[in-house]
C-alpha cells in the first residue's frame, strides 16, 4: 500500500499543542509520512500558555497531550519544516493537509497568508470525492479555509458541511479569563467576530451547513461531497485524527 503523505502548515508560534500533537501522533501511528511547513522554514512553537504554568493546569493541554507535544517537537520533520514561501513549495504530492487551530494571535500568520491561501485553494478543489486528496481542520484551522477563496471569489468551503469553534465556547473562555489574560482568547482582538461567525458567513446555507454542538463529547463533521473533515476544539482532536486516518486510508482502496 502506498504511504500517505501529510502536510501540517503552522505559524511560527501560537498553535494549540493538543490540536497539533495528538493528530500528528495518530498519523505517525497509522504509518503516514508527515511533513510540517512554516512561512520561512522556521521551527514552529506551540502556545506556551497551553503547555506550562497555571494557564496550562487550568485551561491547557492535558499531561498526555504535553507528552505528545514534547515528543513531536524533537522529531526531525518538526525541527526542519518546509518553507511555504519558497518558490518550489507545492501541495501536489500530499494526500492530506491538516490545519491545526489555536487562539493565540500568532496563528494569524497562517490564517492570513495569501501564499498558503493560494496553495490551498488549488488543492481543495481537487478533494471532491472520489479523490486521493483530503483536508482536515480544527478550531481556528477552519478559518484558514473560510478565508481561502476559489476562482469565483467564494470560500473553498462555501458548499461544505463544517463545524468550527462554537461562539459559546469562545465567549465563555474570553469573558472568563479577561480579567487576567486580557483579549488572549480573541485572536483578532476584543471586538473581533467569533470564529463561528467568520465561518458561517462564507457558507451558502449556514443554517443547514454549519453543524454545532456545545456538548463536551467529541464532535466531528465529515462532508459528503469533499474529502473534508472538521472539528471544534482540543477535546475533538483524537476523534478527528482517527476519522481523518480512516478517510485517507479509504481513498487508497
Automatic annotation (TrEMBL):
<dbReference type="InterPro" id="IPR029062">
    <property type="entry name" value="Class_I_gatase-like"/>
</dbReference>
<protein>
    <recommendedName>
        <fullName>DJ-1/PfpI domain-containing protein</fullName>
    </recommendedName>
</protein>
<dbReference type="Pfam" id="PF17124">
    <property type="entry name" value="ThiJ_like"/>
</dbReference>
<dbReference type="InterPro" id="IPR032633">
    <property type="entry name" value="ThiJ-like"/>
</dbReference>
